[in-house]
Amino acid sequence: MKHKSPQTILTKPVNHLYMLLATAGALSFLGLIMVFSASSIHAIDTRGSALSIVIRQFLFLVASIPIAIYLSKLSTKNWERIGKYGFIVSIIILGILLIPGVGKTVHGNTNWINLRFFDVQPSEFAKFFMIIWASFQLSRRELKGRFNTNVLKLITPAFIVVLILVMMGNDLGTASVIAMILAGLLFVSGIKMKILGSITAIGAVVFAVLILTSGYRSKRFLVFLNPFAPEDYKDLGWQPAHSLLGLASGGLFGVGLGGSRQKWGNLPEAHTDFIFSVIGEELGLVGTLAVLILIGILVYSIFRIALRAQDPMSRYAASGIGIWIAVQSFLNIGSATSMLPVVGVTLPLVSYGGSALLATLCALGFVVGVALRDPEVRTELIKKRQR
Fold first, then answer.
1. β-sheet bridge partners, residue 314
2. 166: Cβ–Cβ under 8 A, 6 or more apart, which residues?
3. pLDDT digit string (tens) for 19-37?
4. 314: number of CA atoms within 13 Å, CB side?
5. 54 with 32: CB under 8 angstroms?
6. Domain count, the chain
7. Does a structural domain hold residue 132?
8. Is 284 in a helix, a strand, or coil?
């Protein structure tokens, strides 16, 4: 007779849901505080009010929460209907950017649609829709027992189309995230490591060509190795150099909330791509470690929920969402610490960006729904209500 091993805090299924909700809430709250701190000077200079940027972030957060709650209550059947058309939706919303006069170009990237009161970034939603679409395709293959189906042919061509559309807007950072999501989903689907390694190598070559054929990209790629070099410091080395200066000056406990010196014009995109640097400067090593721990727990809880998913689509999609958040966090923090070239992606739930915040919370709403469909989690929640 087999005895069940005793459950611990980290293995009890309902705790994975609590961990997800707690870390997502903590990161979102910290994000509001740090967006206000990092953006206040820029907001005064450009909009006349220190609160103008953080208010927008707050409004997006308030709007996102009920949407995420609604999505968490959708059934698997409803998600399958959404997944069926996820690729088409992604093509449409990315295609809108290519219409002359519609797409808004910022720092060379045509990645936004200006809706007068706020900008929308379609590629953030395309990430989510492509994960749901690919998960639907993979689950349908599994449920029908078609394990001999070529997974590469099943989902890769659609991802390539999306990547081409994203690169037409010159957004290599977002393209990198989507490519890594594809690689992660192929891995989860059980593809042979030899094939995955070959695909990864081909992808690396393609990205290398894209970098080397663009003078700006190639300089930006190489400058992270030594951003303080005299020939680069006042040009492409400025952002990574001042990001490192901010992190270095924070020490153990930081200079104090609101006390960042780099945000006074020295660090462009302080409230978006480089918010981790401001956290390091103002909250110190303790603050940056806290962010890393929260992101780590969030990703861990997502994957634990995915492992217990009751249906293959939920398992694939929750895994894809975990990959998305983990990869984007890695790229953002790697850029801020000059361990990677500056790729221009935000830190999930923390950086300023209404589209990114809404898309991420919608994705987390999906994962919450997966957890709530777990019989053991439902039983625990019912017991708690009855106490």
1. none
2. 94, 123, 126, 174, 175, 178
3. 999 999 999 999 999 999 9
4. 25
5. yes
6. 1
7. yes
8. helix
